[in-house]
Write a structure and sequence with these properties.
Layout: H1 6-19, E1 23-26, H2 31-44, E2 48-49, E3 59-61, E4 75-77, H3 82-85, E5 90-91, H4 94-105, E6 113-121, E7 130-136, H5 139-148, E8 150-151, H6 153-162, E9 166-171, E10 181-185, E11 190-194, H7 199-202, H8 205-221, E12 224-226, E13 228-234, E14 240-246, H9 253-257, E15 269-274, E16 278-282, E17 288-291, E18 296-300, H10 310-315, E19 321-323, E20 326-328, E21 333-334, E22 343-345, E23 364-368, E24 385-393, E25 403-405, H11 409-417, E26 420-422, E27 434-436, H12 449-462, E28 468-472, H13 492-502, E29 509-511, E30 514-516, H14 531-537, H15 542-557, H16 565-579
Parallel strand pairs: 1-6, 3-19, 4-5, 4-10, 7-9, 9-11, 14-24, 24-28
Antiparallel strand pairs: 2-3, 6-7, 6-8, 10-11, 12-16, 13-14, 13-15, 16-17, 17-24, 18-23, 19-23, 20-21, 20-22, 25-28, 26-27, 29-30
Helix pairs in contact: 2-5, 11-12, 11-16, 15-16
The structure holds guanosine-5'-triphosphate, sulfopyruvate and manganese (II) ion.
Length: 580
């Protein structure tokens, strides 16, 4: 027995009985352990070395071509009552779900090593952190979990002290999409994932634990687990305001998390705390405080360039795992947007000849957060950081302004619940289709959205100093299909307006959808932006918004009695104002 925790020892024993591994390895998270895992993966072909001179300790993993993204249609929340999972989730009866998974896991690790991976989501010393143990037969998953979480001996110590952990069982199985399921059993604090080795399907600490299971726990315990990046924005006077932003997958969280301000904005600085998930609690001071439960980035590679995200490029030159990227003649990683060289091999390891994408659109890098040049050790603060602003946002070609502010907390909840975004390659299925994605949590909320919105509303009473709530859209396009807003580093200009709003330094004008800046309120010094373009970006099309809010009303109605009455009232008010 490798642990003093009886429940853990028994569960590992039980899983071994079921899956029949050749050997069991308890991960301690040490460098030696990682080195031998990497050695073994180089031997087996799970990893390939990249150019070790330019990219020391960087490796390439090419996944099965049929296993390249999250599979939302195969992801289930198994609550005793279907209504508790809600229309926003796929549901299966827990006993049926367990029986199905039992059948898939039976004997699946024969001849393989079973890794027991203790991990902690959040700083080891933080009372807000939660532990889990992922049992997996994938050494690639272990290597990723080591970068993405506080993995190993420290986490096991904590589990032995407080006795609590989320149980995650994972096997790559046959990688057959017909035999692939990602199941959540919130009542048992248990996750079971079979048949995929990719990202959020397989790194169970991330979406499965830190969002789906954690959101379920957060509801009953009075906190929030959200799909939000987390930064400190420092203004030239040295003041730092913390901002948490929820954008759907592949809609700009990682980029915003490590933004470098434009030339015109000397003295501004963005500090990185997290790029994907935030856990938020009400502090004794009546403010909202947040931690990043993760310890690394699993970031989208395509589009990452010296122009768009120099901080990311700088951190990816050592100790990084690249998944499904292309490679150059001298064996460096390559992806679309990385313009300096040309690819010779594509994301399937084939000679690159045709004109299509060489890297998979959902290709990713895995890297420890403290390799980011803009990292701040506030990411280790046990109590987290106090939030001045919450930002919602989506990928919307039309209609949605560059930025607007909600009128109060309740209206902010409506703004979050009204979000929609064009789908991306982060999940399998069609790309570019607008879908409703409240709070960027459509794929990640572990319970009924109606209850979730009620939970969000309940913070209105608890927060005596609530953050302001904004909505942004970096992705408006003109009639020729070009982005109207330059985005990336220039997004600092929008953050600047938000912070000035928080400090009461700038006015905003009221519209039915929220409060917007006037053309003179955004600092666009040094930016080559046509006045007409700026005007279009910050105007409200009442006719279009009426249609939008009617669609929102229909969507809120899908949750029936679970939709909070006050949210419906608020929605009716906005619609009436738009009609007036
Ligand atoms: P997940 O890791 O899937 O949750 O994604 P994310 O929200 O962290 O998105 P990320 O920052 O990785 O960006 C996804 C894609 O959008 C990349 O190709 C970026 O280059 C692109 N992108 C990010 N920010 C902007 C922006 O401000 N403007 C434009 N036009 N594209 C952006
Ligand atoms: C997302 O899809 O939102 C991601 C990538 O952050 S994954 O880890 O695959 O969920
Ligand atoms: Mn994400």
């Amino acid at each position: 027995m490798a642990t003093r925790n009886q429940a853990l020892a028994q569960w590992v024993e039980q899983v071994a009985q079921l899956t029949q591994p050749q050997r069991i390895h308890w991960c301690d998270g040490s460098d030696d352990e990682n080195e031998s895992l990497v050695e073994a993966m180089l031997d087996s072909g799970d990893l390939a070395e990249l150019n070790q001179e330019a990219y020391p300790n960087c490796y390439l993993h090419l996944s099965d071509p049929g296993d390249v993204a999250r599979v939302e249609h195969l992801t289930f929340v198994c609550t005793p009552r279907e209504e508790d999972a809600g229309p926003n989730n796929n549901w299966m009866d827990p006993s049926e779900g367990k029986a199905k998974m039992q059948g898939l896991f039976a004997g699946c690790m024969q001849g393989r090593t079973m890794y027991v991976v203790p991990y902690c989501m959040g700083p080891l010393e933080s009372p807000l952190s939660r532990c889990g143990v992922e049992i997996t037969d994938s050494p690639y998953v272990v290597a990723n979990m080591r970068l993405m979480t506080r993995m190993g001996a420290g986490a096991l110590d904590r589990i032995e002290q407080d006795g609590m952990f989320v149980k995650g069982l994972h096997s790559t199985g046959e990688l057959d999409p017909e035999r692939r399921f990602i199941m959540h059993f919130p009542d048992d604090l248990m996750i079971q994932s079979y048949g995929s080795g990719y990202g959020g399907n397989a790194l169970l600490g991330k979406k499965c634990h830190a969002l789906r299971i954690a959101s379920w726990q957060a509801r009953s315990e009075g906190w929030l687990a959200e799909h939000m990046m987390l930064v400190g924005v420092e203004s030239p006077d040295g003041e730092v305001h913390y901002v948490a932003a929820a954008f759907p997958s592949a809609c700009g969280k990682t980029n915003l998390a490590m933004l470098i301000p434009p030339e015109s904005h000397k003295g501004w600085k963005v500090w990185t705390i997290g790029d994907d998930i935030s856990w938020l609690h009400v502090g004794n001071d009546g403010r909202l405080w947040a931690i990043n439960p993760e310890a690394g980035f699993f970031g989208v590679a395509p589009g990452t360039s010296a122009e768009t995200n120099p901080n990311a490029l700088a951190m990816l030159h050592h100790d990084t795992i690249f998944t499904n990227v292309a490679t150059t003649a001298d064996n460096k990683p390559w992806w679309e947007g990385k313009s300096d060289e040309t690819p010779v091999r594509d994301w399937q390891g084939r000679e690159y000849t045709n004109g299509g994408p060489a890297a998979h659109p959902n290709s990713r890098f895995t890297v420890a957060i403290n390799q980011c040049p803009s990292y701040t050790d506030k990411a280790e603060a046990p109590q987290g950081v106090p939030i001045s602003a919450i930002v919602f946002g989506g990928r919307r070609e039309r209609l949605v302004p560059l930025v607007f502010e909600s009128k109060d907390w309740e209206h902010g909840v409506l703004v979050g619940a009204s979000m929609a975004s064009e789908t991306t390659a982060a999940a399998t299925g069609a790309v570019g289709v607008v879908r409703r994605d409240p709070m960027a949590m459509k794929p990640f909320c572990g319970y009924n959205f109606g209850d979730y919105w009620q939970h969000w509303l309940s913070f209105g009473d608890k927060l005596t100093r609530p953050p302001r709530v904004f909505h942004v859209n970096w992705f408006r396009k003109d009639s020729s299909g070009r982005f109207m807003w330059p985005g990336f580093g220039e997004n600092l200009r929008v953050l600047q307006w938000m912070i000035r709003r928080c400090k009461g330094e700038v006015e905003a004008h009221e519209t039915p959808i929220g409060l917007l800046p006037g053309a003179g309120d955004l600092d666009i010094s040094g930016l080559d932006l046509e006045p007409a373009t700026l005007a279009a970006l910050i105007s409200v099309d009442s006719v279009g918004w009426r249609e939008e809010m009617e669609a929102v009303g229909k969507y809120l109605g899908e949750f029936g009695e679970r939709t909070p009455a006050s949210l419906l009232d608020r929605h009716r008010r906005v619609l009436a104002e738009l009609a007036a």
